[in-house]
Amino acid sequence: MSGLLDTARLVTLTGPAGVGKSVLARAVLEEHTARHDGTVVRVACWDGLADGGVTDALLRAAGLPDAATAREAARALALRTAHPCVSDRGRGRTGRRVGRGERPGRTEQGEQGERRERLGRTDRGEQPERSERSMAPTPAPPPGSAALKALTAHCRRHRLTLLLDDCDPVLDECAQLVRRLLRADPGLRIVATARRPLGLPEERVAAIAPLPVTLGEGIAGPAVELLATRTGPAAPELLVTVCQALEGSPLAIALAAHQLDRMSLPQLAVQVGVDGALFYSGPAATVRHTSLYAAHAAGYALCSPTDRRVWARLSVLPGDFDPWLAGCVCTSSDVPAAAVDGALERLRRASVVECVRDAGGAHPDTGVALPPRYRLPRAARDFGQAQLREAGEEAAARRRFRQACAALAAEAQITWQGPNQQVAVRLVEDEQHNLDAALTRPPQDAEDALGALEIAVSLWFHWAACGYRQEGRAHLDRLLLLSRDDTALRARALWLAGYLAAQEHATATAESLLDQAWRSAVMHADSDGLARIAHAHAVLALYRQDTATAVACLEEAARHHSRDPWFGPGPAHSWALLAIALAPHDPARAKTAAHHAWEARHSDGDFWLYSTILYAQALAERTHGDPAAALRACRKALVAKKLVGDPLFITGTRHMLTGLRRAARSGSGSAPPDPTPGEPWWQHRHPTGRDRKPDANGHRQAGDYAG
After folding, report:
1. Is 669 helix (H, G, I), strand (E, B) or coil?
2. What number of other Cβ atoms are within 10 A of residue 300's Cβ?
3. Where is this region: Disordered (predicted)?
4. Do residues 54 and 164 lie in contact, with contact meaning Cβ atoms separated by under 8 Å?
């Protein structure tokens, strides 16, 4: 901001409620004017504006007469310089007090006669004589232009910088005043603070963000330092926890610190993490800043009815979102779908909604233009939820949210079987917070529970192929208890829960779930379900090293003609797993199975299938004693697996690659020994034992372990 003040005539500080715009503006201006030998003239536009608006308040703050004072002075001057007949209004020539309807020196009858005579002259086309009132001087025009000229001259003479603080309730009036001031004196310097810009061409906008909580690993940020000044010595991890829950908002931190009079810091950390700080209160210079609720209520009152409804309904979204999801949640009979985008943009300009990704970027995998993504900060979201609950619309908005997430999950499932599986992976990553919330929030009724179960089933590839089996099992176990009706959707959920348990080598659980899925599939005459159950039993057989059973189950599943190509591994993957099962024993049949798998593929972008086939090829070449060919196939398999994060074989692939490199360097065709007798080595846990953890961007990583 200091740099902008040296070059710009108009600087506007924008930001959400409680971010510290006014405090920052006054602090920087005090330093700036002290360095340049100037003075700041401040007008608080939100609090205490008297009659006459911003212009009169600015004139009074600068020590100049305001418009009302100027009008009184002009009237007094007019009376002093008027004709003697009107210098003392209300007295006639004889000194008698004249009524409001009389003229001096005339009786009532005389007035009526003169009025008839004047009307007669007018009818005859003659001009009436001018009255004594018309001879009085014309009142002076409103002194707006003269006052502004006087103000600009005064600012130039005394090196004044104007600060229009909290312009939001009179934003248009402030913009017009600033435009006139800058036209009158291009050298004038003006600073404004508001939640949205003034919208003038010469305006330089400085968007003020909340304080960073950390500046890197182990380095406390300004938010933690601000809280520490109010708490005294405290555990750094507790300070970070509180500041993260408050999202670095200076007002929220100040209000939370004020609560330490009645609770300890650990208690505060727990409470703000669960409930937030919306209703914390404390002393402040203005009523708006006594609580976060009051600060947001002041901005909420300035919004249009449509923007208020959109704000409240967006509060059911736990993370960032795109305009499509916002439209699904906000559209109703009182908010048309076409109005949501405009409301989003207005809320963004008002610093209610944050834009976390601008429109116009290209998708890294497809090149398709990406829509913008928005986010509702924690305090604004909590305030919106309070308004939504008060309006009795929370249940309907949450239901629309879960329905929208079911549509997202279905789109991801179809995309997974399309030409580029990375698009499906990226879609789930982008909507991770929303999908997790739709799965974990308690359903409102049986229909809502089925909607949550549908989301879990549609994301089968995310659980089974991208490494989130434990999460998938947890969601399915909980939702299956809430959806006990024997439906086709429940049958799929039972199979998926059993398949995930089989992948994790939970044999007893997997067999119980697959038995229930088999009975349900028979009842619904679901031949696709029976084939998927056979595929899952083959996984269990491979864990038991029962190759014969695994081959029999996989051949049954592979020869099935699927009627639903979108759900489950499908025949192509059964052929690919069959190739892996046969590779150590019958490489020729394994190559044939791999060929059938590739011929049965849905698209060339099925990296999950492609990597599995390459792994089978590497396994067969290694068995034949050709480590160089096996090494090439293994490298390609690892590259393909990393594109989708398939954890079922990725650790085994790395292990095989290490052994093949060692064999290629030594010139030996021998295979690396199994690390643990009695267990398939390609299904071992990663040597470090690491589970999936968030990466640097907060996204969960898949493929660190298998089985």
Report:
1. coil
2. 20
3. 85-146, 662-707
4. yes
Using only C-alpha atoms, the chain has a radius of gyration, in whole angstroms, of 38
Tracing tokens 């380095």 back to the chain, one arrives at: 219
| Distance (Å) of CA 386 to CA 173, 278, 312, 313, 534 | 32, 10, 8, 10, 50
pLDDT along the chain (707 residues), means of 10: 88 95 94 87 83 84 72 55 51 44 47 48 44 38 69 89 94 94 92 96 94 87 93 90 95 94 93 92 90 96 96 96 96 95 96 90 69 95 96 96 97 90 90 96 93 97 91 96 91 96 93 95 92 95 91 93 86 93 88 90 84 86 79 86 74 76 64 40 39 41 32
388-390-392-397 Cα dihedral, nearest 10 degrees:
10
Check residue 164 and report its DSSP letter.
Answer: E
Token pair recorded at residue 423? 């698009």
What's the CA gap between 556 and 574, in Å, rounded? 9
Distance between CA atoms of residues 590 and 621, nearest Å: 10
User: Do 350 and 303 touch, CB atoms closer than 8 A?
Assistant: yes
- Count CA atoms closer than 13 A to 620's CA, side-chain side: 24
Contact, 205 vs 176, CB < 8 A? no
Dihedral sign, Cα of residue 631, residue 539, residue 502, residue 565: positive
Task: Enter the tokens of residue 277.
Answer: 């700080």
Largest Cα span, the chain: 135
Cα angle 120, 123, 129; round to 5 = 60
CA distance 312 to 640: 44
Residue with tokens 């890294």: 364
Reduced to 3 states, what is the DSSP secondary structure of residue 420?
A: coil
List strand residue ranges (DSSP E) for 557-637, in order. Answer: none
Structure tokens given for 88: 């003392």
Instruction: Name the E strands within 331-479.
Output: 354-357, 373-375
* Contact predicate 314/329, CB 8 Å: yes
Q: What whole-number distance in Å separates Cα of residue 508 and Cα of residue 492?
A: 19
Q: What DSSP string describes 312-337? A: HHHTT--S-B-HHHHHHHH-BTTB-H
Q: Cα 330 vs. chain centroid, distance in angstroms?
A: 15
Closest CA to 192 of 174, 212, 172: 174
